[in-house]
Design brief:
The structure is a single chain. By secondary structure, the protein is of the alpha/beta class. The protein has helices at 3-10, 15-30, 69-81, 99-113, 126-134, 149-155, 161-174, 191-203, 230-243, 253-258, 262-265, 281-284, 300-313, 326-329; strands spanning 33-43, 86-91, 116-120, 139-141, 177-184, 208-213, 273-274, 317-318.
C-alpha cells in the first residue's frame, strides 16, 4: 500500500470498503475469537516526562503507588481463576524494581497461573531483557508512539526514536514476541506523518501492534490540546490489519475513554484482542495515563465479564486461549 493510498483512506475515501476488508481479513485469520489479556498495572511512578502522559514525572497532582512482587503475582493468579491465557505486567519507567524483582514476578506468575507473561516496563537494559526472557517472559510491549523524529523528540523530552527502535530490535533478538504501537492525532501529527507511521510500524514485522487515539490528560503540557478522533483511530486500525494480516491487534481502552462503546466497535474494524485491567480497585484509578483509563470501577471479575459481554455484543467469541503469535507459527 502506497503512502498516498493510506493518506486517502485516513481522510475517509472508502470507510465502508476499508472496514469490511479489515473485518474479513481478521475473521479469515482468527475466526470469531477475541483474545483477552489481563493487565496488571503495578506502579504509576515514571522517570520520564512525556508531554502527553498523566504519569509523567513532573505531575504532582497524581497519587503514586507501587505494588509488591507478591501483590503482582496475586493479580496474575487471579487471571488463571478468571480463565485468562495472558497476563500483561505493566508500569511506568520505574527502576525501583530490580531485574530480579521482575524476574520473581515472571516466575511467580508462571508457577501460580500457568499463563503467558507479557512485560511492558519501558526502557530497560539489554541485560534485563535477556534475563527476563531466560526466566520465562514470553512477550514485551514497547510503544513507539510516532516514527517522526521531531515529533518524537517534542513529545518525549530527552528521549530519541533511534534508542527506542534499538530496544525493539534487542527484544526481537532475545526471542520475545514483540509488540509496539502509535498514538493517532498526537499533537503535531499530520496525516502524512500518520501514514508514514503506519507503514514504518508494519515494516517492523511485529507480533502485536496497537494504535490508540490521543486522549488529553490534565496536569500535562498537552492537557489543553484537542482529543484525537475515534474515527481516525478506527481507520488506522483497519489499515494496520490490511498491512499485518497475522498480527494481534488490540482494541484499546483509549477508544472508550473518548466514546463509550468504541472499544467493542474496534473489534469490527480489524482488532482481535481486548485487554481488561486486573489492577486492584484500590489503586486502579491512579494509573491515570489519561482520564477514563480505568473508569469502570469494579472488581476484576466484573471488569472481565463486562469485556466478555462487549465482545459478544459485536458477534464475536471471548477466547480463553493464550493467543500466541500467528505470524511466527504461520505455515
Amino acid at each position: 500500500m502506497r503512502p498516498s493510498e493510506i493518506t486517502q483512506l485516513l481522510a475517509g475515501a472508502d470507510d465502508a470498503g476499508l472496514f469490511s476488508a479489515a473485518q474479513a481479513l481478521t475473521r479469515e485469520n482468527f475466526g470469531d475469537e477475541v483474545f483477552l489479556r489481563g493487565v496488571v498495572e503495578f506502579s504509576n511512578h515514571c522517570d520520564n516526562n512525556c508531554r502527553y502522559c498523566g504519569l509523567r514525572r513532573a505531575n504532582r497532582q497524581i497519587h503514586r503507588y507501587r505494588l509488591t512482587v507478591e501483590e503482582i503475582v496475586a493479580c496474575a493468579a487471579l487471571a488463571r481463576e478468571l480463565s485468562l491465557g495472558t497476563v500483561v505486567v505493566q508500569s511506568g519507567d520505574d527502576y525501583t524494581y530490580s531485574k530480579e524483582d521482575i524476574g520473581r514476578v515472571v516466575t511467580g506468575a508462571k508457577a501460580t497461573a500457568d499463563v503467558a507473561v507479557t512485560l511492558s516496563l519501558g526502557d530497560r537494559t539489554k541485560e534485563d531483557f535477556l534475563y527476563w526472557r531466560d526466566v520465562g517472559a514470553d512477550r514485551y510491549l514497547l510503544k513507539i508512539e510516532t516514527f517522526d523524529e521531531a515529533l518524537y523528540a517534542a513529545s518525549r523530552p530527552g528521549l530519541t526514536l533511534a534508542d527506542r527502535l534499538a530496544r525493539v530490535e534487542w527484544l526481537r533478538r532475545a526471542g520475545y514476541e514483540v509488540g509496539s504501537g502509535i498514538i493517532t492525532d498526537l499533537p503535531g501529527m499530520t496525516p502524512d506523518i500518520l501514514a508514514d507511521d503506519l507503514l514504518r510500524l508494519s515494516e517492523l514485522d511485529l507480533d502485536m501492534i496497537a494504535v490508540g487515539p490521543f486522549v488529553p490528560s490534565p496536569d500535562t503540557p498537552y492537557g489543553a490540546k484537542p482529543a484525537g478522533s475515534v474515527l481516525t483511530a478506527f481507520r488506522a486500525m483497519a489499515i494496520l490489519r490490511l498491512l499485518n494480516p497475522l498480527a494481534n491487534i488490540p482494541s484499546t481502552s483509549a477508544l472508550n475513554a473518548l466514546r463509550d462503546g468504541a472499544r467493542e466497535q474496534g473489534l469490527t474494524v480489524g482488532a482481535n484482542v481486548i485487554m481488561p485491567s486486573l489492577t486492584p480497585e484500590t489503586v486502579g484509578a491512579d494509573y491515570a495515563i489519561y482520564p477514563g483509563k480505568n473508569a469502570f470501577r469494579a472488581d476484576a471479575a466484573s471488569r472481565l465479564e463486562a469485556a466478555r459481554a462487549a465482545i459478544r455484543r459485536v458477534g464475536r467469541t471471548p477466547s480463553t486461549a493464550i493467543g500466541g503469535s500467528k505470524r511466527r507459527h504461520h505455515g
